[in-house]
Amino acid sequence: MTSTPPPASSNPPSPPARSPEERREGFEQEALVHLDALYRVALRLTANAADAEDLVQETMLRAYRSWDRYTPGTNAKGWLLTILRHLFINEYRRRSRHPETVDVDTIEPFALFQEVQEEDPQGAFFDKIVDDEVLRAVDQLPEAFREAVTLSDVEGLSYEEVAKVLDVPVGTVKSRLYRGRRLLQAKLYGYAVSMGYIKGQSTK
Amino acid sequence: MRCRECVEHLYEYLDREVTPDLEAEIRAHIQKCPPCSEHYDFETLFLKFVRVRCRAQGAPATLRRRILEQLLEE
Fold this sequence. Notes:
The complex is a heterodimer of chains A (about 200) and B (about 70). Chain A is mainly alpha-helical. Chain A contains 9 helices and no strands. Chain A is elongated. In chain A, about 30% of the residues are buried. Chain B is an all-alpha fold.
């Protein structure tokens, strides 16, 4: 059996040339549809609407400039979020004035279900908590946990996709999610008790 | 399977990130253990609550317009 030898210079096959219109159209269909997700993640990272908008705009511009390196039909959302996160770390994190986050080591192991099991096992108090308060609680998580919770629980990425965006092993994603969720529950519980939505354990 | 194991893997189970074998074991345990079943329902509700509340907000229309204009200039 004969096989054709590879050409002398084995450059990867270049994608078929696209017209600027086709290129833009492809970008709009595959990348721009994730604008809301990018903006939400940017807001959680920067804690500032103006910075979040700039970060997203810059991300979209960079993505568009390297659009030819993206393989159509693969995970555009993950690809865009990776660009966004790199950009945040390199150019925004230093000047971001993210509000104080909780110190993980001061938090005792906490499981919301155990706290409310007697009083409100169906979690009816969740309905009383307003959106802004939930976002505030997420924003108070330390960055590593906040990223994991936002990407997984809010934007629906799988463990493997989150691991790729954050450039950490899947096991790390798992533990950050576990601890991040528990911290978030502790925050929400504290808030619900302070508002009188639940009585809480009178141990303190 | 015991409750402790079930609770330990509950999030992975909810996230659909367990092996088919473990998934079957946990599902069977939840079906016959009322406290774990209640815990499962509660964590399901919690995760849905976080998703829905944090997704209420989207990108401003002005941002979309700015990006589209920028693409045209490229």
